[in-house]
Design brief:
This protein has a domain at 88-151. Helices cover 34% and strands 22% of the residues. It contains eight helices and nine strands. The strands form two sheets. It has a seven-stranded mixed β-sheet, with helices on both faces. A two-stranded antiparallel sheet has the order 1-2. β8 (214-218) and β9 form a beta hairpin. The model has no long low-confidence stretch (mean pLDDT 87).
């Protein structure tokens, strides 16, 4: 188990114009208070190998900020971020995915197909297509398959399943949970979706708020009291 204490602050850096002053007056705010304004997103949490950490909350509440700070807190060589996985247009999906290690060609093919199947990309014509030609939802799932195949300790994904339909998102969430537990991969995911929680079954939830501290909730861990809060 590893404890992470993350924090990110933002200062107001705009220019006080006539319109800015007018808006401040409308809300009863002294303009000089803007330069003193500081927004801080922070939390402290404990993560085990194979945990699913789910950051959720309304838009603008700091999910992406905390996810990025968590990514900085782990060795770069041990992590992969879906947003940074390219979409080749000169190779088919099956040629992009590799199980790695010393496997026979047949074993590598079967394991590559398994990664694609895990994310719901098991149609023959899809597998033999180029990633650049896929729909947005298929491209997202391709990136997820690439992340699984990378064999990293941590997988980071912002806007997790945001562009997928309800059924597909539920299936992917359930399979991801099983993958995490069977492979010891830790997933750090951020999304505003609540409909996938029962299938994803996150071990740690970070609930961000537009005002007030973020709340850290642990699932089924006797070593924790259940909830912790961090300042924002």
């Amino acid at each position: 188990m590893t404890t992470y204490s993350i924090s990110k602050s933002f200062e107001w850096q705009g220019t006080i114009t006539g319109k800015v002053v007018s808006v401040c007056r409308m809300f009863g705010l002294a303009a000089d208070r803007l330069t003193e304004q500081r927004f801080t997103h922070k939390c402290r949490l404990e993560i085990d190998a194979g945990d699913i950490v789910y950051l959720t909350g309304p838009s603008g509440a700091g999910k992406t900020v905390l996810l990025a700070e968590l990514e900085k807190a782990v060795p770069a060589a041990d992590s992969v971020n879906l947003a940074e996985i390219p979409l080749p247009d000169d190779r088919t999906l099956i040629d992009c995915i590799s199980a790695g290690g010393r496997h026979t060609a047949e074993a590598d093919l079967l394991m590559s197909l398994r990664f694609l199947s895990t994310v719901g990309l098991n149609d023959c014509f899809c597998i033999l297509n180029q990633p650049g030609n896929l729909s947005a939802g298929q491209q997202y799932r391709f990136r997820l398959a690439m992340a699984l195949a990378a064999g990293k300790k941590f997988v980071f994904a912002d806007e997790f399943c945001s562009g997928l339909d309800d059924v597909t998102a539920a299936v992917i969430s359930y399979r991801l949970h099983r993958f995490a537990k069977s492979n010891g991969t830790t997933f750090i995911l951020a999304s505003s979706r609540h409909d996938i929680l029962s299938d994803l079954a996150p071990d740690v939830m970070i609930v961000t708020q537009l005002s007030g501290p973020a709340e850290v909730i642990y699932r089924h861990k006797a070593s924790h009291s259940g909830k912790h809060t961090g300042s924002k």
